[in-house]
Write a structure and sequence with these properties.
The structure holds 2 protein chains of 2 kinds. Chain A is an alpha/beta fold. Chain A has 12 helices and 14 strands. The longest helix of chain A is centred in the N-terminal third of the chain and has 15 residues. Chain A is globular and about 60 Å long. In chain B, helix 9 links the parallel strand 2 and strand 3. The relative contact order of chain B is 0.14. Chain A: GO terms for molecular function: branched-chain 2-oxo acid dehydrogenase activity; magnesium ion binding.
């Protein structure tokens, strides 16, 4: 499978660019149309169309039973979705915000993630739990958490997070079609991001469990996902333009955090010899630690420098007035890249990382 | 403009959009637990046969006798190290058996860990039902095939499952009801509240049976709730509450049958509180003498579900010695078979631990499975090397 994904370069003139929110909505619409077992449920998903309008129009088109406003109780929503899945339905649950998903945690950890295992495959949980996550929209407390580490610590769940318009459609369709429960993390500040994308002919994208290289480079690899993908792409452009350093950075978009695509990540790091993991969630015991450990285990002899992490601080998510200091931005990413021991006498001397290493970086 | 400056006469009125959502009175439970056994003697003396159906009485009797024996046997198996733990339903057999017999084949049962007997009374293989309590990693029986959800350990978390399943069945137009079992302690959990609320709002065909056995491990009901009764909790959700003598198998069967019929025909959920008593400790690992007096237990022994049923049958001339012997023999046969099968050592396959985490194992799980497989092979090899050459069967225990 190719790991490169076509990135639209310029919008064609015959249609308006689509937003991530629109692509997600279209994915739900097409899933509801294709499979009568698919049921959308959550808070305000019906008449209102969801607080981010991702379910806009679905109740009108498919009826209040297929796109249902539930009582305001997240454990109840997930718990009833478990029962619906037991009866053969394919529930797609919307949690209104990252931090409001926590009341449903016991259902997710004790039942959603384990029902297949406990019943030796007789009661699979083909359920998708959509969660808008991450900061950068000026949300007050409880509206900006990056909660992915909690889900990654739970065997039995898949954790998926798109960063592009095409992936939003393709990965959400794949999540709904999956016979395993998928925690589908939607980077809320990218809801309004745009791309040239045809809803009538959505681009085919790699499935769940596959990372892609968003930008080819040779100096170092930035490994990231969700809301930090555009940040890393911007950082890579800036590094190029900067001139003084002239780093040619590769950017890997993980797309799926669990199962983790070690193959694509390791191949990239072996090529570049240096890696920085970038995410918004707190660094301590965050996804970056796991990823850095795996890279070290798989690529030790290819590494020119320790794997670094750029993450949110280990603090409760800060208020809107201060969040820009917390979120990993282009400068912080480039600072980390600068600390990748470029001066090391052990390297082959060039900016090209592993390039030219041939027979003996050491 | 302030209120005082508004024109016109001040006319006190209720808030504009308020209206009562539903009549509360019809939802209220009985003032005292509803009973059938021993209450209709006078009518029968008048020559009118108004008591419960004789066939049902005999079925319930055979099942509670068998249930009592099952509880005793399972507790004995914990002492013999054949069950890791057994939360006994001794004293609650009427609830367990009536719940199972009130269900139709197409209905679903959602049991908690204390409800093994309900699953067995529904006809499931006792050894399969005891899988988790035996210490296996899976729950044993075929849930979709038997329409019995896995025995649920985290309290009350199975109640929203029952509601979701019932709701899904109703959406599909199937005449299916879900019966969820929970204890008095479980009614304090948030999931109890959320399940009742969802069921009421969706009018889901779900019935909740609270077996109020007086204790949540050691904590008595007085420390659990200030509600007039647990059945009264129903009213707050707009759901009818029923209060029944949980040791009266006929009363429990009747109330559940009505509630399940109502659910299947679109009448919505019901909350039933069955007042019963846990005659044993919480589990074999618990010591009940630390938190309750012997006198209390003795009072409940005088209200034993098996005795209550037996007395009714004898009063009505429906029980001869042969029927008693038949019921006891059937119970003994089941217990003996359970004993024998549980004394065989199960051979769980460690490799199966990876098989059902996902539909397809992830690359990471495949790698971990390979590691375990290699470890198992090494163990096997070491064991083989320790055997005397040419005699692979002997010497196993000499290593």
């Amino acid at each position: 499978m190719s790991t490169a994904v076509r990135q639209p370069t310029a919008a064609r003139t015959d249609r308006k660019p689509a937003t991530m929110g629109q692509a997600l909505r279209r994915a739900l619409r097409d899933a509801l149309a294709d499979d009568p077992a698919v049921h959308v449920l959550g808070e305000d998903v019906g008449t209102l169309g969801g607080v981010f309008r991702v379910t806009d129009g679905l109740a009108a088109e498919f009826g209040a039973d297929r796109c249902a406003d539930t009582p305001l109780a997240e454990a109840g929503i997930l718990g009833t979705a478990v029962g619906m899945a037991m009866y053969g339905l394919r529930p797609v649950v919307e949690m209104q915000f990252d931090a409001f998903a926590y009341p449903g945690f016991e259902q997710l950890v004790s039942h959603v993630s384990r029902m297949r295992n406990r019943t030796r495959g007789r009661l699979p949980m083909p359920m998708t739990v959509r969660i808008p996550y991450g900061g950068g929209i000026g949300g007050v407390e409880h509206h900006s958490d990056s909660s992915e580490a909690y889900y990654l610590a739970t065997p039995g769940l898949h954790v998926v997070t798109p960063a592009t318009v095409a992936d939003s459609y393709g990965l959400l369709r794949a999540a709904i079609a999956s016979d395993d429960p998928v925690v589908f993390l939607e980077p809320k500040r990218l809801y309004w991001s745009k791309a040239d994308w045809d809803p009538e002919e959505p681009d085919a994208v790699p499935g769940i469990g596959r990372a892609v290289v968003r930008r080819r480079g040779s100096s170092a690899t930035l490994i990231t996902y969700g809301p930090s993908v555009p940040v890393c792409l911007e950082a890579a452009e800036a590094a190029r333009e900067d001139g003084a350093e002239g780093w040619d950075l590769e950017v890997v978009d993980l797309r799926t955090l669990s199962p983790f695509d070690e193959e694509t990540v390791a191949a990239s790091v072996r090529r570049t010899g240096r890696a920085v993991v970038v995410h918004e969630s707190p660094g301590f015991a965050g996804p970056g630690g796991e990823i850095a450990a795996r890279i070290t285990e798989r690529c030790f002899h290819h590494l020119e420098a320790p794997v670094l992490r750029v993450a949110g601080f280990d603090i409760p998510y800060p208020p809107p007035m201060l969040e820009r200091h917390h979120l990993p931005g282009v400068d912080r990413v480039l600072d980390a890249v600068a600390r990748l021991q470029w001066e090391s006498g052990f390297t082959s001397g060039g900016r090209g990382g592993a390039e030219g290493r041939g027979g003996g970086a050491l | 403009m302030t209120v005082l400056e508004q024109p016109g006469t001040y006319a006190p009125a209720p808030p504009p959009s308020w209206r009562p959502r539903t009549e509360a009175a019809p939802l209220l439970p009985e003032a005292e637990p509803y009973r059938v056994l021993g209450t209709r003697t006078a009518e029968r003396e008048g020559g009118e046969q108004t008591g419960p159906d004789a066939g049902l009485l005999r079925r319930l009797y055979a099942a509670v006798v068998q249930g009592r024996r099952f509880n005793e046997q399972a507790t004995a198996l914990t002492r013999q190290g054949r069950l890791a733990v057994y939360p006994s339903s001794r004293g609650q057999e009427a609830c367990q058996v009536a719940a199972a017999l009130a269900l139709r084949a197409e209905d679903w049962l959602f049991p908690s860990y204390r409800d093994t007997l309900a699953a067995v009374a529904r006809g499931l293989d006792p050894v399969e039902v005891l899988s988790l309590l035996r210490g296996d990693w899976h729950h044993g029986y075929d849930s979709p095939g038997t329409r019995v959800a896995p025995l649920c350990t985290p309290l009350a978390t199975q109640l929203p499952h029952a509601v979701g399943l019932a709701h899904a069945a109703r959406l599909k137009g199937d005449q299916v009801a879900a019966l969820a079992l929970v204890g008095d302690g479980g009614t304090s959990e948030g999931d109890f509240h959320e399940a009742l609320n969802f069921a009421a709002v969706w009018q889901a065909p779900a019935v909740f049976l609270v077996q109020n056995n007086g204790f949540a491990i050691s904590v008595p009901l007085a420390k659990q709730t200030a509600a007039p009764s647990l059945a009264h909790k129903a009213v707050g959700y707009g759901v009818p509450g029923r209060l029944v003598d949980g040791n009266d198998a006929v009363a429990v069967h009747e109330v559940l049958t009505e509630a399940l019929d109502r659910a299947r025909s679109g009448g919505g959920p019901t909350l039933v509180e069955a007042v019963t008593y846990r005659l044993e400790a919480h589990t074999n690992a618990d010591d009940a003498t630390r938190y309750r007096a012997d006198g209390e237990v003795e009072a409940w022994r005088a209200h034993d579900p098996v005795t209550l049923l037996e007395r009714e049958l004898r009063d009505r001339g429906l029980l001869d010695e042969e029927t008693v012997r038949e019921a006891e023999e059937a119970a003994e046969r089941q217990a003996a078979e359970l004993r024998e099968r549980m004394h065989q050592d199960p051979q769980p396959d460690p490799m199966e631990l990876f098989a059902h985490v996902y539909a397809e194992p992830t690359p990471q799980l495949r790698e971990q499975a390979a590691q375990l497989r290699a470890e198992l092979a090494a163990e096997h090899e070491a064991a083989a090397a320790a055997r005397p050459a040419g005699n692979p069967a002997a010497g196993e225990e000499t290593r």
